[in-house]
Structures are given as C-alpha cells and as structure tokens.
Amino acid sequence: MKSIKNLLKGRNFVVFTLVMMLVLVGTINYNLSKRSLLETSNELKEYEKSMMEALGDELAIVEEDMEGEVGEGVTTEDIQIVDSNASEIEQRVAEANANITQELTSEENMEKATYFVDMKLSREKQRGELMEELDRIISNPSTSEKGREEALNYKLGLIKFRESEITIENLLATRGYENSIVYISENMANIVVNKEKLDQQDIAKISDIVMTQTGLTLDKIRIMNNKR
C-alpha cells in the first residue's frame, strides 16, 4: 500500500514539475515575443524618423486651412501640356492626365462635401473612356503596327496605374488615412487625404508608401489634405 502511495506522490511531483516547466517556458516565450514587438516598433519609428529627415524641402506639400483656402496648389505649369508634335494617342493620354489632375486639385471641387466620391467617379470615368479609345485603335484593322503597339503600351500602363492607385489607397487606410484618393500618371503621383493638417510624420508615411509602390522619386509626388 505504501509503495502505491509513494508511486502516486512521485507521479504528482513529476506532473507538478512538468506544469511548472511549461509555465516557465510560456513566460519566457511571452517576454521574448514582447521584446521582439517592441524592437520592431522602435525600428519602425526610427525608419519613419529617417524618412522625415530625408524629405527636407524636396516634397511639394499643399495644405488647406480651416477656412477652406488652399495653399500653394497646382498651377497651369504643373499640368502636362499637349505637344503638337506628339502622336494622336500621346496627346489624348496627356489631355486625360491634365483633366483629371486639374479636377483633383481644383479649389472649387475641394469645397464639395462629396469631393472624394466625386473625384474617384470622375477618375474612373475618364480612365474608362480613354481605355475604350485605345481599344478601338488596337482593334482597328487600319491602325499601323506602330500605332497599335503604342496604344497597347499605353493601355497596359493605365491598367498598372489603376492597380497601384487601389493598392496605395488600401495601404493608406491601414495607416490611419481612411479616406484618400490617389491619381498616378507616368511621371507624377497626386495624393489627397482626408485630414485637417499634415505634419512631417504624415508626409513620411505617405511618401514611403507611394515611392515603394510606384518607384517615383520625391519630387514627383504631390500630397494634399482636404478635410471632409
């Protein structure tokens, strides 16, 4: 009888020891995970800090104050001018880029309560019309091989820009900019976020996302704020 009791006591001791070891291992893993998360968070802060320092005066920032007045915005010099020597396809693409950019940065449009919805609809409408024109050129038997290739390249570029815009808008939403609109053309990215003011940390976050997704340099990125 004693041997059975001793055996039970021995088993209880082993079970108790195993439980304590599991608790110890769990505690160690938790502390290590917590430390890892803290290190990652610190690294992210350091990265964003370095981004802010690197920005300097290179990035054009447009801020709209509480009275609705827009700061240094887009001028006619900023909008791509159609070259009379360019091909018909290139001219049409340039016209669409200029129209969308002008609507996006228009002070009158920014005053509208439905600005973000309206601008996204307008962007998709004009892009859609341009895509249809390119499709007609591509499918037209009388189109030269060079013209067909040019139209196809522009169409593929528009598809890529559209995908990048959606990706960037989704990424901005995950970083706290829940309502934004992005318009990307060949050599420029225009971003408008729904925020009262933009500080250097905002610019660092937004520009990092845009540069990563598009490959554009800072001087080709224009960030604006429009609280709606």
In summary, what is this structure?
This protein has six helices and four strands, in the order H-E-H-H-H-H-E-E-H-E.
Structural notes for this entry:
The protein has a domain at 86-226: Stage III sporulation protein AH-like (Helix Hairpins, Orthogonal Bundle). The chain contains 6 helices and 4 strands, in the order αβααααββαβ. It has helices at 2-55, 88-105, 107-110, 115-139, 145-174, 200-214; strands at residues 60-62, 180-185, 188-193, 221-225. Strand 2 and strand 3 (188-193) form a beta hairpin. Helix 1 crosses helix 6 (200-214), helix 4 runs antiparallel to helix 5 and helix 5 packs antiparallel against helix 6 (200-214). It is globular and about 55 Å long. Residues 37-99 form a coiled coil. It comes from Alkalithermobacter thermoalcaliphilus JW-YL-7 = DSM 7308. InterPro entries: SpoIIIAH (IPR024232), SpoIIIAH_sf (IPR038503). The chain crosses the membrane at residues 12-32.
